[in-house]
Design brief:
By secondary structure, the chain is an alpha+beta fold. It is about 25% helix and about 20% strand. It has two domains: about 190 residues, no CATH class; about 140 residues, L,D-transpeptidase catalytic domain-like.
Length: about 425
Amino acid sequence: MEKQVIALKRLAILLGILLILGSAPFAQGQDTEGPAKTPPAGFGVFKLKKNPFGAKVTKRAPSMTLRTGEASQEEAEQGKEGQWPAPKVDLRVEEIIPPDEKPGPRAATAVAAPGAGGVRSANRKINFPRDPDDDLDVLKLQIFLDYHGYSVGEIDGRWGYNTGRALYVYQMNNGLATTGQLDDAMLNRLEEFAKIGYLAEYTLTAEDVKGPFYEIPRDYHAMAKYKWLPYESLGEKLGEKFHCSQSLLRKLNPGLDIDSLSAGETILAPNVLDGIDEKRGEVAVIRVSKHNKWTMAFDAQGRFMFYYPSTLGSEYDPLPLGTYQVTSVIFYPPFKYQPKLFWDADPNEPEEMLPPGPNSPVGKVWIGTSRKSVGIHGTPNPENISKNTSHGCIRLTNWDAEQLAKRVKPGTRIEFVE
C-alpha cells in the first residue's frame, strides 16, 4: 500500500510539471518579452545563436519620465483607491564598453559599404559579437530592413519583437513565406545585400559633433525651466543619426570614446543614411494598426512605402479607430504638459510648457491629426518603442517620425484600424 501511495505522489508531481510547461509562454512559441498580442497568424519566433562571450556589464540611466523613484507609500495607496495610480518607471540600460576594450576572439571583421554616401571602405576588427545575445546575422538583417524602409526601431544586433515583426511585413510584401524568421530565403537576400554593404565608415562633420550636451532633469516641472532639451551626449546624437543604440556604436568602434569625438574623425556605423526609403516621395495614406502596434505609409496608388513599429495608447487611452487627416507638421515642437489628460499623473499638479528638443517627451517632430489631442510624434526613448504604452498618441522613434513628417502635409489621410 505504501509503495502505491508513493507511486501516485510521483505521478501527481509529474503531471503538475507537464501542466506548468504546457501553459508557459515559451512552450507555445511566443515572445515572452513582447506585448501579449502577436502579429497575424504565421508569425514565428527565431531562436538566437549563442556565443561564449562574458556577461554584459550595464549602467542604468533614467528615461524621460515624470517621476524617477519608486512610488511612495502614499502614492501606492492613492493608486489602490483609484484616485491616480503611481506611474511605471522605465530605465534605459546601456552597456558600459570601455573604449580600450579589445575585440573578443570571435569578433567579426567588418568591411564598410563601398560608396555609401561620402564614406570610404574599411576593413577592421569590431567588438561584435561581444555579448551572448549579439548576433551578426541579426545585425545584418536589421540594417537590411531599415535600408529598405522597414524600421526595426533601434538597431542593436539582437533579435527582438520589433525585428521579427518588421521581417514578417517585409516577407509579406515581397512574395516570401511569411515565417517571421531568418530562414534560408532571407539569408540569401542578406548575402546579396553584402554587395552594397552593411556598415559605413563615416567622417564626422562639425554639425555632427555640435552640442550642447547636458543632463536633463526627469521631472516635467524641472524641464520647464530650460529653453532647450538637447541630446545628453554625442553618443546619443550619433545613435539617432544611424538608427542604432549607443552600445552598438561602441561595439563597432573599439578604441574610440564615442562621446568625445571631433569633426574629421571617422566611425563605423550602420549603412542606413542612403537607403532606398530615402528615395521615395510623398505619402498619401498613413495606416496605424492598433492590434499589431505598427504604422505603415502608402503612396497615392496604394503602394507600400514605409513600415514603423509604434507605441499606441493604453487601456486608459486606446487608439481611437476611424479615418482622420493630418492637420499640421511641426518640427521641434514645445510640449504642453496637462496632468489632467494623463491617467498616471496627479490631476492637481500645475500645467507646464516644456521646451522643444530631441529629448522632449514628444521628440523632434509632431504630426497633428484631426482627432483632438492625438498626434504622431517622436520619443526620447527609442529602445521602448512598442514595448510600453502612450497617453493616446502614436509614438515612433525620432528618426522614423522625422522621415514620415517630411513626406506628409495637411490633408494627408490617416486610418486608425483594428
